[in-house]
Amino acid sequence: MATEGQKVVLITGCSSGIGLGIAVMLARDEMKRYYVIATMRDLKRKDKLVEAAGDAYGRTLSLLTLDVCSDESVKQCVDSIKDRHIDILINNAGVGLVGPVEGLSMEDMKQVFETNFFGAVRMIKEVMPDMKRRRSGHIIVISSVMGLQGVTFNDVYSASKFAIEGFCESLAIQLLKFNVTLSMIEPGPVHTEFEMKMIADVSKKEFAGTDAETLQHFRTYYLPSAVNIFQGLGQRPKDIAKVTKKVIESPRPQFHNLTNPLYTPIVALKYADETGNLSVHTFYHMLYNLGGVMDVSVRLMKCLTCGCLRRQTISPV
Ligand SMILES: NC(=O)c1ccc[n+]([C@@H]2O[C@H](COP(=O)([O-])OP(=O)(O)OC[C@H]3O[C@@H](n4cnc5c(N)ncnc54)[C@H](OP(=O)(O)O)[C@@H]3O)[C@@H](O)[C@H]2O)c1
């Protein structure tokens, strides 16, 4: 149970990846400022988290079952927490979906929205009234850079993240009146099971109903560049956890929080040209005309930002 002065943090989707990373980083806080309720839909998947949490498990970290797609599961979980008191809610659970729209089933598309959009809304709806009553709380959503900029062949995933961005941008205004803060974390690619699931999913699917030309664009242009981007620019869950902790600890948290500075110019493109053509055409060229160049650019950008060049400069002593 949380001790006096500790902040109670509930995180969804902690069986792997970013959720696991955030849960462990907060639970292992040196000053023990957080009591983490790490939730997952299937507790049989708890071993990786328990191992990574080490001696924090049972002290500053406990586990509960929670499926963000079920009203009953969400209510049962929140009701089981002492006084339903949650200081910080981190909506992390999410699923991906890539491929040509014609080849994706409506069922799969709805599942993405059910998890990424309605899952987060369901959590907020359950936890927010208590925060408003207490006039205190912080709601965090692990969104994506794709919630700010659409990316081809990620149409539905991107739409689900745009939807949650729009929902939260609207809600944040009202919540300010109740001293409740809302923050979006917007990662670019991160090495987690998400990436593996995407590769496994794509290799299994035939995308029936998609014309041969579109399928060829998907397999020969998009997929290799997606793999390159993950390899070249991918962050680790620990990097996202660090940004999230910084946001939690900030006296005046920002609403938008990109985790990868390399994506700042990409997002800026759409605000630089109100017609929208600049970003659409730039992405078109990057995908269809600059495949090879992009590979080199990704490596170059990674090299420039890794810090090794800075470390090698001679200091003016
Ligand atoms: N990896 C990236 O490149 C990336 C980039 C930007 C944003 N994000 C976002 O980051 C978040 C975490 O993803 P990740 O990269 O850490 O992927 P991950 O390793 O696949 O983790 C996703 C987590 O969500 C859980 N989940 C899925 N459906 C759920 C449900 N109905 N109820 C409760 N939990 C559910 C999964 O649980 P199970 O183990 O039961 O499946 C898993 O714990 C997602 O919102 C994703 O959109 C990821």
Automatic annotation (TrEMBL):
NADP(+) binds at residues 13-41, 67, 161. GO terms for biological process: estrogen biosynthetic process; retinol metabolic process. The lineage of its organism: Eukaryota, Metazoa, Chordata, Craniata, Vertebrata. Keywords: Lipid metabolism, Membrane, Oxidoreductase, Transmembrane, Transmembrane helix. One of its GO terms (molecular function) is all-trans-retinol dehydrogenase (NAD+) activity. GO terms for cellular component: cytosol. The active site is at residue 157. This is Ketoreductase domain-containing protein. Substrate binds at residue 144. The chain crosses the membrane at residues 6-27. Coiled coil: none annotated.
